[in-house]
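ligand=alpha-D-glucopyranose
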Amino acid sequence: MAAAAISHLRRGAQRHALLYLLQRRFSSAAAAAPLATARRLLSTSVESSASSTGQNYKPPLFDPFRVATLASSAPPLESPPTEEPPNDAPPPEEASAAAAPEQDAVACQHELEGMKAAVEALRSREESPQEKEAWRLLGRSVVNYCGTAVGTVAANDPSTASQMLNYDQVFIRDFVPSAIAFLLKGEGDIVKNFLLHTLQLQSWEKTVDCYSPGQGLMPASFKVRSIPLDGNSEAFEEVLDPDFGESAIGRVAPVDSGLWWIILLRAYGKITGDYALQDRVDVQTGIRLILNLCLSDGFDMFPTLLVTDGSCMIDRRMGIHGHPLEIQSLFYSALRCAREMVSINDGSNNLIRAINNRLSALSFHIREYYWVDMKKINEIYRYKTEEYSHDAINKFNIYPEQIPYWLADWIPEKGGYLIGNLQPAHMDFRFFSLGNLWAIVSSLATQRQAEGILNLIEAKWDDIVANMPLKICYPALEYEEWRIITGSDPKNTPWSYHNGGSWPTLLWQFTLACIKMGRRDLAQRAVEVAEKRLSDDKWPEYYDTRTGRFIGKQSRLYQTWTIAGYLSSKMLLDCPELASILTCEEDLELLEGCACSLNKSARTKCSRRAARSQVLV
Ligand code: GLC
């Protein structure tokens, strides 16, 4: 068991090796899991798993540290205790396995030094006038709370100052590219403050019609408000006021916020080497609360996360309820990142096992059922329907008539993509950029699929990039479809905003995916397209029309994630090795040694073995 645990560390959590791996002891509890628990081991639910020692992981409902910090309007950010390793030496059988972690520690140190050197190089590089302007604007968007920088506003557009809606707030998802830009520039403090302050907002009591969201939900955004101190009209104190969707247009719950928070936490650790932040008790609790919310059992039969419409970047009704790709890619990425950061101890065995089981099931499901290319579409075109059996080919009973008229001409000979959503008798064939790009970044897609996605973008450049990278989705919903699916939304008219608009912020995610796949040339091309207009057009939020020619009808100007996405792309292209703070490589071990081997039932198909066969073909 010790060897297995150390091998887990080698896979992803090298930082533990660097910090104090040699002092750690591992429980043999999981190795002794009886056959009778196999069904439970297969469950991806954390709470329902049980170890033979009876040490279930359950996040504390009442976390004294969290409550203490919530009570204060300016909570202290100095480090509370990290999870201290026991002082005793490892037992003899672990001593030999400890040699490998020592090597990992050296490799990890080496990696960190490489990162520091790259950041140094970025700090001293010559910036173009456009980059200088972008940095100035990014600096202007910084929000302070009790004297420290904690985030950036979504937009800083003086022309619409009277109708800011919630664009004067710090959005979790919008801050990610800002954070990456700051981290690449060696400015980690604002990111650390953001991570800790949003963590304190995690469990705030907010309700919609007397109903509160699940524990662990992260807000979509927050605002710094000044309120009179104890009824005194002279003195004010600052408070952070989060929005979990209870004020948002459409009352949409932000499922992606917690996932982005985990992804950013890992990136912060990797680039700064400040792993102590991840080890803090409150941060570990925060990670677990998010995971618990995502991994809890429900009515669903699929390993994908079931969400309502508008639960991510597309935060208005756009027909993406169910199992939208964007959420699945971020979910996979967050699970991979969390697995590296969860402290290894007796209490986390079940959690790690639940993460691993979910990762393998999720990757199998997406790789197998969401992927389409010329060959697959032809298969769907010839599908038989109404198959009732375990070995049905057309498992979701997709009627071939669903293949949209545009797709037959559009799908290139070379390449393919992951579809937008999959439900019983429903495949959403629209191409969604963020979900596809993040499937590459996180290795949710196989190597072959990842290459295929970039090939498709290259082949369909005029549809997806054209005059401004990148289309949020392709194609737009028009006519009756627009009326029924968007609810006649005047902001989401065809080829505008979420309905086929072009969003320059997606450039940084495209750049990451291209770097990971050795296609910097493509990213470079896209950056050049964006550079021609962004500064002259005052850094708009989005562009309209089929080819992205016009600044969006209701687009904000000086949109922060447009500015930060551009800066991050430029820096990543200059120091591509820094992309590794956000990417994950294929994990073959994940596809082996599954709890399914304990269950010989013919009905259970092992997703790990199945997933492995996808990679090897
Ligand atoms: C819009 C976008 C959303 C973004 C927010 C702030 O609501 O749809 O993704 O987070 O604006 O920029």
